[in-house]
Design goal:
The structure holds two protein chains of two kinds. Chain A is α/β, with parallel strands linked by helices. Helix content of chain A is 31%, strand content 23%. Chain A has eleven helices and 21 strands. A nine-stranded mixed β-sheet of chain A has the order 4-3-5-6-7-8-9-14-13. In chain A, strands 10-11-12-15 form a four-stranded antiparallel β-sheet. In chain A, helix 9 links the parallel strand 6 and strand 7. Chain A is globular and about 70 Å long. Chain B folds into two domains: 66 residues, 2-Layer Sandwich (VC0802-like); 72 residues, ACT domain (Alpha-Beta Plaits), CATH 3.30.70.260. In chain B, strands 1, 2, 3, 4, 5, 6 and 7 form a seven-stranded antiparallel β-sheet that branches. The two termini of chain B are 15 Å apart. The chains are: A alpha/beta, B alpha+beta. Chains A and B meet through helix 11 and strand 20 of A and strand 1, strand 3 and strand 4 of B. Bound molecules: zinc ion. The site of zinc ion has 6 residues of chain A, from loops.
Chain lengths: 433, 143
């Protein structure tokens, strides 16, 4: 079955993709150098002239851009077109400090919508579908992005936004929604509520496109079972455009990056050195078709792997893994790099909930790593020694993964705070500075 | 001839045991026996209550992790040196005793031992043959 929105682009030859990237990168570098003082200063400081960038191979010469740059340049410092030519502002979900804003021309929005349309079609969407968009609308890119993509495909679009779960479910049933777009945690919650209301036989969903937060394979299976659908992952960042930077195909083994619009690199988060395909590191994006807000070598802080193996879906775009963690979450304990994602993998494999907390301390000038894990009914036994045996097995598995000893502390269920947004996974009590 | 014991996971943190007893008393559940086995980080609290079904239910509702295990309740007060003799009987029959704890009843001042063994049926057969009396759940409620 052919599920492409733009077959000639999505299945283009590697040579064609490369030609697009070379040409568009050169154009974008000139565009930002000529129109954005912030970029000009960054490039001048690094001694790079626009003429030095002649193809994708020269990408490494360009300076990186981080979220701090975007905050420094707030509000209009990175806008690359006259204000009159920009038509839209979106913003990242509020963390501390100054917000990050992104700008779009109408052309930028059209291309963004196309990226989302590719994701919807890859998930089996056609103009016959009713797409329920339950991502937030407004400054958040989730709602507007999938809404635009759904229009491009010609689906009947239900712009529900988030919240008001009863009404969501009523519309889903009454209007026969077939594709649901929202965060994975909201999809899980909708599924639970639908079952509580006994309406599971009255929904007509066939697919879901879920993104904007981290979710495990286990959670995917739960959602698929609960809603009776196939659940597809989608990735994006407001800074780069929003959802649709990459999306999953029916193979569900990674997300195809829309390489006609974005060049992806994997770097060593400590040295900034570019790593070959297949190695784990920080994902860096360069947008090459944006008019209002092009970003060169933007460090996403997401730890991923890129793979160029042939995909059964026929698409030739490189695939990125689900983000396995954040480079800013990386800990160095006893001189060893520890990613929370590694600990999470061990816990899931051993049947523990992925809700954990890592506590690092320095005792007598030596690092101590403790992993707090919630007890589950399945793991519990009336015998202390049986529990201690399981604990020891977990310590062994962590040691095999991390290369260092981590103490395991079993804690009461639900005692590790479940946050609304970002979970506090790491408590570093070392006084390193 | 067994009684139901409820085992509860307790994190070693001030207030967790109090939180548990609060749940039980708020639901008018009466504890007959209690034993805590712990390590530096966590403990397993074992209790015998008058209404084990209700206790397991309200504890789970309150977010505790618990399990119900069938254990033996051996009347020992009418047999001098009863517990030591019972252990000998179990040993001779090759039945492994995992843990034991004692309690006395309020009403009649009787002493009982709770025994957790690997094989309840074999233990009941061996102990009854040796002349011991085992208490069942219903009797325990009356004590
Ligand atoms: Zn594919």
């Amino acid at each position: 079955m052919e599920n492409y929105y733009q077959r000639e682009i999505e299945c283009a030859s590697p040579e064609q993709i490369r030609a697009w990237q070379d040409e568009r990168l050169v154009k974008t570098v000139h565009h930002v150098y000529d129109n954005v003082a912030y970029y000009r200063n960054l490039m001048d400081a690094k001694g790079v002239r626009p003429e030095d960038i002649r193809s994708r191979d020269d990408l490494y010469k360009l300076p990186f851009l981080t979220k701090d740059d975007l905050r420094d340049a707030y509000p209009y410092g990175l806008l690359a077109v006259p204000r009159a030519d920009a038509v839209r502002i979106q913003s990242t979900s509020g963390t501390t400090g100054r917000r990050v804003v992104a700008f779009y021309t109408q052309h930028d929005i059209d291309l963004w919508d196309e990226c989302c349309a590719r994701a919807i079609v890859a998930a089996g969407g056609t103009r016959e579908d009713v797409v329920q968009v339950s991502y937030g609308y407004g400054l958040f890119t989730g709602g507007p992005g999938l809404n635009g993509g759904s229009h491009k495909v010609g689906c009947l679009t239900l712009p529900m936004s988030s919240g008001n779960t009863q009404r969501q479910i009523q519309f889903m049933v009454d209007l026969g929604a077939t594709i649901l777009c929202c965060t994975p945690s909201y999809a899980a919650y909708l599924g639970e509520t639908i079952h509580e209301m006994g309406l599971q036989d009255q929904i007509q969903l066939k697919a879901g496109i879920f993104g904007a937060e981290a979710w495990s394979q286990e959670m995917r299976r739960d959602i698929e079972k609960s809603l009776g659908i196939k659940a597809y992952d989608i990735y994006g960042l407001t800074e780069i455009s929003g959802p649709g930077v990459s999306f999953e195909c029916s193979e569900q083994t990674g997300m195809h990056i829309n390489e006609d619009h974005f060049i992806a690199e994997i770097i060593d988060p400590k040295t900034g050195e570019v790593l070959p395909d297949g190695e784990k590191g920080e994902l860096v994006f360069t947008s090459i078709t944006k008019e209002a807000f092009p970003l060169l070598r933007y460090r996403t802080r997401d730890i991923c792997v890129l793979t160029r193996e042939k995909c059964s879906c026929g698409r030739t775009f490189v695939k990125m893994s689900k983000p396995m963690g954040r480079s800013d979450d990386m800990l160095i304990v006893k001189g060893v790099n520890v990613f929370p994602s590694q600990i999470e993998t061990v816990l899931i494999n051993k049947g523990y909930p992925a809700n954990y907390q890592i506590i690092v301390d320095r005792v007598n000038n030596s690092d101590r790593l403790e992993v707090q894990v919630e007890m589950t009914p399945e793991m519990f036994s009336d015998s202390v020694s049986a529990i201690a045996t399981q604990e020891a097995a977990l310590v062994e598995a962590l040691k095999a993964m991390l290369g260092i000893y981590a103490k395991v502390k079993l804690v009461a269920p639900k005692s590790i705070t479940r946050s609304e947004g970002k979970a506090v996974r790491i408590i570093d009590n070392r006084k390193l500075y | 001839m067994t009684v139901k014991q409820i085992s509860v996971f307790l994190e070693n943190r001030p207030g967790t045991l109090a939180a548990l007893t609060d749940v039980l008393s708020a639901n008018q559940i009466d504890m007959r026996a209690l034993s805590l086995s712990d390590t530096a980080d966590f403990g397993v609290l074992r209790i015998i209550v008058d209404d084990s079904y209700k206790a397991a239910f309200v504890l789970k509702e309150a977010g505790f992790i618990c399990s119900v295990t069938r254990v033996l309740a051996l009347a020992v007060s009418d047999t001098p040196g009863g517990f030591a003799k019972a252990v000998t009987v179990l040993g001779k029959n090759g039945i492994n005793l995992e843990y034991a704890y004692a309690f006395t009843t309020k009403k009649r001042g009787l002493a009982y031992m709770i025994l957790r063994v690997a094989d309840n049926d074999a233990a009941i057969a061996a102990l009854t043959a040796a002349g011991f009396t085992l208490t069942c759940q219903d009797e325990l409620v009356e004590l």
